[in-house]
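Progress narrative, Year 2. Work on GYF domain-containing protein from Bradyrhizobium jicamae advanced from sequence curation to structure prediction during this period.
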Amino acid sequence: MSNRSWFYAANGQQQGPYPEAQLRDLITRGAVGADTLVWTEGMSGWQRAGEIPGLVPGGSGPPAYAQPGGPPPVGAGSYAGGALSIDVSIWELLWRSIVFVIGMVLVIPSPWVATWYYRWVFSRLYVPGRPNLAFTGQPLDIWYVFIAIGVLTYVGSADLYYLQYLSIPIQAVLAWMVIRWIAANLSSNGQQLPIAFNGSALGYIGWQVLLYVSFITIVGWAWVVTAWMRWICRNIDGTRREVIFTASGLEVLWRTLVFVIASFFIIPIPWVLGWYARWYASQFALAERGTMANA
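Result:
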């Protein structure tokens, strides 16, 4: 492998070829990361650097199968589908999440803080076949939605039960609008993606209400969340592959309980937050349309 020449993708452009020694130097300096797409002769397609055994410290993955010729076009997926993943450090995830919560509580900065947070999250998200994923939404696109969400954070402190119940469908509609906004503002390699979330507002309200009711069963909420995520995935259109949610209700239940219980002890929060975020992201995957996902 030491005599190979490597290519890597940056800003939607193919860079290289570079001798392996130079590529490793780029990795050391941070110019090439574990999520950067790379290719060398003998590989069937572009892969993340972290998936190449021995290339990135701590990285591992299946060996590439030989295929003659030059590198495929940047952005061409090396396989039809696969699980999503997120590459975040526990401390960065923690402080950014804290800033996000504070921004929502303060109401006025919520549109800017939310946009800033979503841009960071999607820049750290790896989607098979969609290199350099980015969120392109602007703070003032739906500023009124975030202001309303911020205001509703104070409803729970009100000693008026009817007001709290009334806020449930309102919160659902606001969350539905945020999801539609996010889906419509995703890009890959600088090109806008034709993605849309077409689930109905009424359907989203129904799931929100069902979630609240399911807490009566103590544990039933986990299966509601699982079914809800699958409904959301089924209503994502504009992609040549379908998005699926692979977690089972039992997995959602025990992992969420571990996260909540550990958070009561304060100190473990950064670690369990990173653990839970990485697991949750990995439960979303892309598959050829028509593939049945059983969980």
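Confidence is low (pLDDT under 50) at residues 60-68, 75-80. The first helix runs from residue 20 to 28.
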